[in-house]
C-alpha cells in the first residue's frame, strides 16, 4: 500500500553562478517521499545530491537561483515561503544530518548548550523538561552515558559520538523529514555501520521520513525503501530498493555504479564485472548533447549522443534512458 505523501518535488531546477559560468547542478528533479518512507539519493560526487537536499530546507548557496519547479512539503510550497516560516520549519518539520559533524557542531559550546538552544527557540518547554529531553535524545541516539556527553565539547567526543549527537539534534523536535547527507563519510567502517543501523531504526519511528544521501549503494541498500539515482544534476532512475538491488538497475549508470563497488563487482548474465566506471562525470558547464552519461555508457549509440532521453515507466519506477538494461543481474548483491 502506498504511503501517504509528505513531499512532492516537481521539476526543481537550480541555476548556480560559478567562475566557469552558469551551471545547472539540479535539473528538472522530480520525486516524492511518503510518510515514514526512506528514500536513498545516490550518485557520484558532484551529481547534485547535496544541493537537492539543501533545497528541501530552503537553503541555497550564494549565487544560486531557482529557475523552476515546486517543493510541496506537508501542504506548503517551500519555494514561496518567507524566510521566517522556513526558519520555523527547519528543525521542527525538516532537519538535516551533515557529512562532517565536526564542522556542523559549534566547537566552543557544550552539547547541552547546543541542544538546549534548539528547544528554546522552537518550544515552550521548561528548563527541567528540556534537560530531560536532551538526555533522552542522546540515549536514543545510542550514547550510553548521555550526561557526560551533554557536558562535553565536540572535540572531546569521537567522530562516531559526534555524529550520534548530530542525529539526536536532528531528531530533537521530532521532525517529519530527516535528510541525512553522507552521514558516515567521516567515520571508520565499523562506526559507519552502527550509524546506518541507527538510521534504519529511525524508519521505525512512526511517520518519520528519511532522505538518505550517499554515493555508496551498499549503504543505500541498508536503509532505503526506494532509490533515486542521480547523474550530472538529473535523477536518471527511480526504483524500489528490492527491485533495484535484486533484479538490477535499469539505467546503465546504476549498473556501472553497482559493479564498481570496492568489495567486488556484480556480474550480469551478459557482461564481465566492471572494475570502475570508465571516464568521468562531465563538467556541468560543458554537458554533452543528448544523454549526459552517453560518453561513459557501453550501450550508447548515435541516438544517445544526440538526443535527450525521455522518461520510460511511471512514478515510482522509471528510467531516463534510451536503452534501459532489463536483463537480470547474474548474482544478488548483498549489503557490505
Ligand atoms: N557553493 C557552490 N559554488 C559553486 N559550485 C557549487 C557550489 N555548491 C555545489 N556546487 C557544484 O554543484 C554541483 C553539485 O554539487 P553537490 O554538492 O550537490 O553534489 P553532490 O552529489 O552532493 O556531491 P558530493 O557528494 O561531493 O557532495 C557540483 O558540481 C559542485 O561543484
Main sheet? 8 strands, mixed
Strand content: 15-25%
Q: List the ligand species.
A: adenosine-5'-triphosphate
Total number of helices: 12
Structural class: alpha/beta
Main sheet: which strands, in order across? 6-7-8-3-9-10-12-11
Principal-axis shape: globular
Along the chain, the helix and strand elements come as EEEHEEHEHHHHHEHEHEEHHHEE
**Mean pLDDT over all positions:** 89
Helical residue percent band: 25-40%
Query: Which regions are unreliable across 5 or more consecutive residues at pLDDT < 50?
Result: 263-275
Number of strands: 12
Distance between the termini: 29 Å
Taking all Cα atoms into account, the compactness measure Rg is 20 Å
SSE diagram, text form:
Blueprint lengths: L4 E14 L2 E14 L3 E5 L6 H7 L8 E10 L2 E2 L5 H10 L1 E4 L3 H4 L6 H12 L4 H14 L5 H5 L8 H13 L5 E5 L7 H14 L6 E6 L2 H7 L2 E6 L2 E7 H6 L5 H8 L42 H5 L4 E4 L2 E4 L16
Helix pairs in contact: 5-7
Family: Belongs to the ABC transporter superfamily.
Pfam families: ABC_tran, oligo_HPY
GO molecular function: ATP binding; ATP hydrolysis activity
